[in-house]
């Protein structure tokens, strides 16, 4: 009975993003290891001029990445579809040239971060106030603080968000339904009620299905990415403004206060998950 009382929801959806900052794919099931969902963020673009990892967190340079989609295939390859609908493989000899043409900068597709890998995170409030093409202040984000070495995660290998949070954002912005794709989670947890329930999950474990166990290590600070066009989804500044107005909380206890929605987690015990699996806190 105690175990049943600890159920906070079920897995509603699973997402992975084979190329960092490109649109991803919904999965019917997933193997999860300490490196996250199998195939997630397995590739990223590296700016040949600066050596930085390309990320839509700097919209002025990289928002075009969100007009591309990436899907993992059974043989381990990644299929990348550009804004014109043309598909290529990550192993194609001209893939770097093709992607450089899409983003308007010289880039190389990489399967491992370069030494001392970093990306720039434009300050989201300045992006909102000054526009997508403005040169705003940016914070330097180093890789590896909450993830295994050799991965392309900004912080942690798992990002989750609850249906309660999405309903709260929609409730606060009723003229437009909050689309989960804007927030780019790996795991959507179907929960009852309305509210930013993940705020109370810091440093607690989530057991999903029979085996997978996660530890929540931070609230997810939101950057400018949710406001950007995602493929056919138009730009929506309220996707960030609403969170900024109603859920400014510490990322970790005693840490900086930022607009947050969702949680970052590390994998304590690997396992396989699928939609419908119970989630216990």
TrEMBL record:
The source's superkingdom equals Bacteria
Segments carrying the region annotation (Disordered) are 73-93
| Listed name of the protein | MOSC N-terminal beta barrel domain-containing protein
Q: Which residues form the MOSC domain?
A: 121-281
* Matches recorded under PROSITE patterns: MOSC
InterPro entries xrefs: MoCF_Sase_C, MOCOS_middle, Pyrv_Knase-like_insert_dom_sf
For bias kind Basic and acidic residues, which ranges apply?
Answer: 81-91
Q: Which organism is it from?
A: Streptacidiphilus jeojiensis
Q: Which Pfam families match?
A: MOSC, MOSC_N
